[in-house]
Amino acid sequence: MTQAGLEKAQERARTLRKEIEDHNYRYHVLDQPLIDDHEFDRLMRELQELEKKYPQLWDEDSPTNRVGGEPLEAFEPLEHKVPMLGLDNAFNREDLFEFDNRVRRLSGLDTLEYLCELKFDGLAVSLQYENGTFVRGATRGDGYTGEDITQNLRTIRQIPLQLPEPLTLEIRGEVYINREAFRQLNRQREEQGLMLFANPRNAAAGSLRQLDPRLAAARPLRIFFYGLGEHNLALETQAEVLGYLEKMRLPVNPNYNVSRGPEEIWQYCQVWQDKKDELPYETDGIVIKVNSLQRQKELGTTARSPRWAIAYKYPPEEKTTRVKDILVNVGRTGAITPVAILEPVGLSGSVVQRASLHNEDFIKEKEVKIGDTVVIHKAGEIIPEVLRVLKDERTGEEKEFTMPRSCPSCGTETTRLSGEAALRCLNPKCPAQLVEKLVHFASRRAMDIDGLGPAIAEMLYNEGLAGDVGDLFYLKEEQIAGLERMAEKSAANLVGAIEKSKERPLRRLLFALGISFVGEKAARLLAEKFGDLEILQDAEENDLTEIPEIGPKIAQAVLGFFRNPETKPVIDKLKLAGVNFKEPAAEVSSQVAGPDLSGITFVFSGTLEDYTRDRAAALVEERGGKVSSSVSRNTDYLVAGDEPGSKLEKARSLGVEVLDQSRFEELLGLG
Ligand code: IVH
Question: Would residue 247 show up in a list of annotated catalytic residues for this protein?
Answer without folding.
Answer: no
